[in-house]
Each structure stands twice: as C-alpha cells, then as structure tokens.
Amino acid sequence: MKNPRQLIFPFSIDKKSSLSKFFVPLGSESLVKALSNKDGDDIVITGKKGFGKSYLLQSMCNDHSSDSFSVSYIPLREAIKLQPELLDGLESLDLVCIDDLEKIASNKEWQVACFNLINHCSESGCRLIFSCMEGEDDFFPDLLSRLKKMTNYKINPTPDSQLADALKFIASNLRIPIKDREINFLLNTCSRDLPKLIVSLKEIDSLSMESKRKITIPLIKELL
Length: 224
What we know:
With 224 residues, the chain is of the alpha/beta class. The chain folds into two domains: 25-154, Rossmann fold (3-Layer(aba) Sandwich); 160-223, Orthogonal Bundle (Helicase, Ruva Protein, domain 3). It has helices at residues 29-36, 53-64, 76-79, 108-124, 141-149, 160-173, 180-189, 194-211, 217-221; strands spanning 43-47, 71-75, 95-99, 127-133, 151-154. It has a five-stranded parallel β-sheet, sandwiched between helices.
C-alpha cells in the first residue's frame, strides 16, 4: 500500500464470497483466471443482472486482502447517494473494485470522479476492476475511452448443459443437502435460469429447515 491510511466506507461485503466458490460458466474461464491473480491488467466486467458481477468483485477483495495488500469495494448503487469525493485518494490502495458502473450513466460528476481515479491509479499502480451492466455504457467520451482501453470481459450465462453441475456446486458451497433426483426435478419444473434457480434452492432449504424435513420432491412441490 502506498501512503497507507485507514479508509472506512459504509458499504457491506459478503465475507464468505470467494472465487473458489464461483461456478465458472463455459467461456468465462479466462476472466476468473485473470481475477485470481493479484496483479494484472485493469479490467471491465460486463454481463446481465444476476450473472455474478458483484460476487466476483467482492470475492476478489476477500481473496486478495491482506496486511500488505490493501483493497476496497465500492458499489456505486449505494455510493451514488454520497459525494463523488468518496473516490479521492483510493489510488493509494493496491486494488479497487468498483461495482454497478451503469448507475452513474446520467451523473456527470461521478463520471468525472471515476475518470480522475483511473488517471490517478495509472500513475500510482493501483489496479482497478469495474463491473457494468451489459449494453449500458452511456458515459462521456473521455471516460468511455479509458474503459475501452482496459481489458474487457463479458460473463456468459450458464448453458443448459451445465445447470445441474452448477446447482450441485452451489448447493455444496451453501451446505444445502439436496440430491441429484431433487435437482433434476427442480430443473425440469422451474425456469432454466441459474439466478432464479438459486433463489428457489435457497427457499427450498429454508422450508426444509423450518419444517425440519429433508429436501424431497413433495417438499419442493409445496413451493412450486
């Protein structure tokens, strides 16, 4: 950390998130590999809602944070309620992850603050990781130019061929005791959209714990 100082922000982060717990959809292997490295290019991650952009940024902060490597996670969906001066001095850190870039598309002051941060980080050596909703890049030309010069990755949706493996992987990480038969039933009766399936999986687990019953097809049917 350069010119170390304590930076305290009113933003929460999922302390359990980790890149090792992220199910990597086909085509996104190079992105996760790039994030696994402490050092590397500045990155812009795009993707649709629910594809894991926020999870990846928080995981990167958790995985790389140490006494000798300072990090910060800034969710713009919350930060935009504050003054853009919030970004001042972040270039003194080693890694800054800025989430929800699309939230400042209509806010010139925040766009200028991000533009200035990029320039300052380029000089200090602080690595920047941005996330932005796919197709939403209505930023002023100078900021857009800086973002396009970074390494850009797009998170792919999880294909049907991986959905069963994805649910097993996620259930294991969440310690949800669900068997293959029930997972296959869930896939055959619910939307084959991974974010929605994860929500259903958590609801099933909650019902299982509340009713003190194992996860079975009859129990799943009660929620469908």
